[in-house]
């Protein structure tokens, strides 16, 4: 029943859409950033931030503020808002919101596995994990010694299970493979997310495919540039590129063969700039991701 | 300091004088050498001080740059990047070792950094593969530069302290030689000379006195001999005349003496 979705939209998504619009207006503006630039001390920053939405989170902090405290509290605000929205969401929105956290979950899993390999304390590692990526059995990651155990004991119950089928080949948790494992997982996650977004169709598919395609292309170029001069072979590089996006498939062939930054950049910078210029700033679905468009442009990093 | 009147307690002999003179020569030469050493050390000290000032200024700049590079890396690769990197490290690949250097006779410690090839930091090259890789490498380079500056500053400061100690000791020795040892030796030498002169004068005096005695003795003997010779002559003359002067003389003399038999 196309065209009549607006009739039933408010039943499922009305409240959350309102919340998201509210949050969007709470984002820091250019004027706020200018003010922050003028600050001389951390107390000035706290004062400016208390006039924004971040105020309640910072006002209880004792006076000698530390930069990490400010960052923690702001992240806490993000996490609280996200959790609130997750509670209020119904299917399929709740699955969509959960997909957003899988990226952080992958990072946390990789962090704990690396830390365990080097015999660090589990509690310390847990404190360093990103709050959006926590899941219940995360502490038991520390007992795993290789991939099979890791999968069997812990990950099979988490949403990350299907992504591991790509890495489940019997490689041990070697250090080099940690980064490759992380990127392979992320690739599988992006592809899964893409497929999920195509199912509902309509606005979701349109907007999300653009965004995810851009993310996939950005990652491909980043991986290429960052792996120039390292031990990563061309085949390995090829395996880390996602199976969708503007650069798929011919662009990936070219990228895999690149040995120099200028080669990659001049061909594909043009294409990617086209995507970013398209006006897709509507907040209805993506508000909680809270990434300003300028950050997506920082792919040269 | 108990003043210039100090001298060593020695027996004032000629041998001692020679010994003291040799010691004075040694002390003078040692004083000149130590003064030269102190001057050389002071020159080194000044150059190190200048280098420390400039290195400290550049260190401030470089540390600020490396902290900012860390912030950029965090921005590009996610807040977790610090923890990710820290957890994936087994042992340090950049290490510091120390060695001794000999500057103007003083052993100064020097630190230098070197990369430990066995620590395998090639694995770290893949950090931030999908985002932030370049920033992470830039941050790494900035911190390596910061470490270089810090190591150099550490060397300079330890050399500074050691040189300071050495200069103090050398100056102490120079002053001691100049103000205590040499005056003492000079006083001892002059004392010995004085004593020797006095002994010589005594000897001279004694000699002269004895000479005087001997001369008088000889004169007296000469006088006595002359008188005796005169008396002998007179006796001879009187004997010729029939009287003994000596006996007449004796009678007169005897008459002047109290005789019991004579009652006037």
TrEMBL record, chain B:
One GO MF term attached to the UniProt entry: proton-transporting ATPase activity, rotational mechanism
Domain of life: Eukaryota
Protein name stated in the entry: V-type proton ATPase subunit D
Signal peptide: none
Keywords: Ion transport, Transport
Entries under Pfam families matching the protein: ATP-synt_D
InterPro entries linked to this entry: V_ATPase_D
Gene3D superfamilies given in the database record: 1.10.287.3240
Family: Belongs to the V-ATPase D subunit family.
Keyword ATP-binding: no
UniProt entry tagged with the keyword Ion transport: yes
The gene coding this protein: LOC105058330
